[in-house]
């Protein structure tokens, strides 16, 4: 996981606060990609599917919060992670 550590450092710009909203969105996206990969090889793992849905809901709530508080950082996070923005925003 050395690659993830270097990505964390680049993304956070030396901010080690794991409660930072942008970091939580980044880490949620990382977990979503791992779960998606797992579900490709185990399509009937319904427990993991439910976990993925919950994680996507949490990430959506975090994105909503960030878009309301700091629009510039919200757009920067979307561009860096390559994820879609919220509908109607």
Brief digest:
This protein is mainly alpha-helical. It contains 4 helices and no strands. The mean pLDDT is 86.
| Euclidean distance between termini CA atoms | 34 Å
Rounded to an integer in angstroms, the radius of gyration calculated over CA atoms is 14 Å
SS summary, helix count: 4
Q: How would you sum up the major sheet?
A: none
User: Could you tell me the mean pLDDT?
Assistant: 86
Topology as H/E string? Answer: HHHH
The count of β-strands is: 0
Strand proportion, as a percent range, falls in under 5%
Shape label: elongated
Can you give the helix content as a percent range? over 70%
Uncertain runs: none
Q: Helix- and strand-based class?
A: mainly alpha
Characterization of the model:
The chain is built from 4 helices and no strands. Helix 2 packs antiparallel against helix 3 (46-69) and helix 3 packs antiparallel against helix 4 (71-81). The mean pLDDT is 86. By secondary structure, the protein is mainly alpha-helical. The chain has helices at 2-12, 21-41, 46-69, 71-81. The radius of gyration is 14 Å and the shape is elongated.
